[in-house]
Design a protein that fits this description.
The chain is mainly β. The protein has a domain of 126 residues. Helix content is 7%, strand content 26%. It contains two helices and ten strands. It has a five-stranded mixed barrel with strand order 6-7-8-10-9. The protein has a three-stranded antiparallel β-sheet with strand order 4-3-5. A hairpin with a 5-residue loop joins strand 7 and strand 8.
Length: 195
Amino acid sequence: MRTRNLSHDKLSLPTRIPETDDGTILFNVPFPTVLNEETLAALKSVSPLIIRQSYAIDYIHSYGQDSPFFAGLANGRLLGCMEPVTSYTYATPRGHDMYTGRETNWVDLTQCPARVHAFTVCYFGSEEFLPECPFVLALIEFDGADTLFLGRLVGVDPHAPSLDWIGMRVGLRFRRNSKFKPTDVYFYPLNAQNE
């Protein structure tokens, strides 16, 4: 703790903040070249500055009732859910049926025949997927399931999308090293050579 020596009239303290060589990258810096009453008043209508700022956060969360789905992916199994009375089957994890509210049971969709129901080519994506753009996402239809599963479709050219892909039979593969994410399963076209 700094104490003031009463024998000195002035205490010598820094009058400047040290400069650093870090900062913000600006993409837009509007400012008048001449400052006068009119330009200073116009500053009230200046558009906001746009900056780039890194942001990271670590958090712990639970997959809760969906945990068996991710455990299945890590073990090479795609699990869906079925309402036990009506047999309405979801191709995605769902703890309770959306119509009856009843608890669902897990079903294995891994060996069910599957086909492309619809697809889109993603030319832009979130930060995690930007390096992989363009890529194809497809809604996959499984025999015996009443809903669709959204997943990556590989083995097709995203630069030459074709409506011929609709109805195309697909197989599924799993990442060898599970990341415990929905992207641990992906789909590829089946043909006579690899069915």
